[in-house]
Specification:
Blueprint lengths: L4 E4 L11 E6 L5 E6 L5 E8 L13 H8 L12 H8 L3 E6 L4 E8 L17 H11 L8 H18 L3 H11 L15 H10 L4 H12 L5 E7 L3 H11 L38 E8 L10 H9 L7 H7 L3 E12 L2 E10 L1 H5 L1 H16 L5 H16 L3
Length: 399
């Protein structure tokens, strides 16, 4: 077996950060960031998998979310249902997970040392709560059982999450925006899932839903699509040894990174659309969405930061200052919202007053006038230098 590769031992970090860092790559291509913090009271870890709701089958929306839930329900090495969460609770810890468009993230926190032996985390003992938690955690990605006895209950938990979201304006408006997008792009999907999409309708079609979840895990989870972060009191060499041993069994299927470069969330057919929605809460928002470039490869320049700095400015001469003076708004934010590799939105969101809602068209006109003003001038170096300086100070003294 090939040795573990040390990708980086020296990372740039804030001046007040006394932690030690190391990036490693296992023979199965799983990459891990190790963090040694000798003073921490809590150890933690997180695995991020490059698969999310955009990979759901068209006829079973919510699959990625359901798989996220089911991984907690027993593995071949630890087959007892909820063994993982019981172990964490016994060591003052907890766990959670979430599914987004292009990734699924699992994480936990646990006591940094055993209550029976406060030196366990520094004497090389595998009795450390972190080691036991990592051992159970790794099995999610090696040999989950997808226990039939837990299937219906976990799907009901997914359904409950969706029902909770039904009265949330954030979720409602987000789903409205997705529904109005191009059906050719996975952004159009209903990502959360419910009993109807994950159990009832597939069962009517003669689909064994458990087999479909196992198939989804097998076809989409791969070591080369995963990133791991581990933080603990243990020395970096010890953390490296643990990760190398515990996560070596994650299979590398050499899956390509998920990308959607050939289709946009909003085609010409869906653009130039005005939508009115009645919220549950007493809120008045004006949101303007622009299709925007994927900035992942532009991380060194981040051009959207320049635009959001100007459009979101709140001082004299800004959009907000102008519409505030008219009594039309009391808040404004602007910035990029990545959708997936290949596309993003630039969003301008304005909190309107009651009078501002009446004059929303004038507010929109002012926004476009300001954008037109920006386009008349080349990017100003002094603005870039000012932003760069503020960012460097923020990083240097971050705690």
């Amino acid at each position: 077996m090939a040795p573990t590769e040390r990708v980086a031992d020296q990372l740039e970090k804030p001046a007040l950060d006394d932690r030690s860092y190391r990036v490693i790559r296992l023979p199965n291509q799983l990459e891990a960031l190790l963090v040694h913090d000798p003073d921490t009271d809590k150890a933690s870890a997180s695995v991020n998998v490059n698969v999310g709701s955009f990979s759901d089958a068209d006829d079973m929306p919510g699959m990625a979310h359901a798989v996220e839930h089911l991984l907690f329900m027993g593995t071949e090495k630890y087959p007892v249902e909820n063994d993982y969460n019981q172990y964490l609770s016994a060591h003052s810890g907890y766990s959670n997970a979430y599914t987004s468009s292009t990734e699924t993230n699992y994480f936990f926190e646990v006591a940094a040392s055993s209550s029976q032996d406060s030196d366990a985390s520094t004497n090389g003992s595998v009795d450390s709560p972190l080691h036991g938690a990592l051992d159970r955690f790794a099995q999610f990605f090696i040999a989950p059982l997808f226990l039939s006895s837990t299937l219906d209950r976990e799907l009901k938990a997914v359904d409950s999450e969706n029902k909770k979201n039904l009265q949330s304006d954030t979720w409602r408006l987000n789903q409205l925006k997705k529904t109005l997008s191009s059906p050719k792009h996975p952004y159009h999907h209903f990502s959360t899932g419910n009993l109807q999409t994950l159990r009832d309708e597939p069962t009517k079609r003669g689909v064994n839903v458990r087999d479909e979840f196992i198939k989804f895990h097998h076809e989409n989870y791969s070591a080369n699509r995963m990133k791991l972060v581990v933080l603990g009191r243990e020395k970096l060499d010890e953390l490296e040894d643990w990760v190398g041993n515990l996560f070596a069994g994650v299979v590398n299927k050499d899956l390509p990174r998920n990308r959607w470069d050939d289709v946009e969330p909003f085609s010409d057919k869906e653009l130039l659309t005005q939508v009115f929605a009645k919220p549950v809460m007493d809120t008045r928002l004006l949101d303007i969405y622009f299709p925007y470039q994927d900035e992942e490869e532009l991380y060194e320049t981040q051009p959207s930061r320049y635009l959001s700095h100007l459009i979101g400015h709140e001082g004299p001469g800004s959009i907000l200052a102008h519409i505030k003076a008219k009594g039309w708004a009391n808040g404004l934010s602007a910035g990029v919202a990545p959708v997936c590799p290949g596309s993003a939105f630039f969003t301008v969101s304005i909190k309107l007053t009651e009078d501002g809602l009446v004059h929303y068209q004038e507010v929109v006109e002012i926004v476009f006038q300001y954008i037109s003003l920006i386009k008349q001038h080349k990017p100003q170096q002094w603005i870039v230098d000012e932003m760069k300086g503020m960012t460097e100070v923020d990083f240097k003294f971050r705690q």
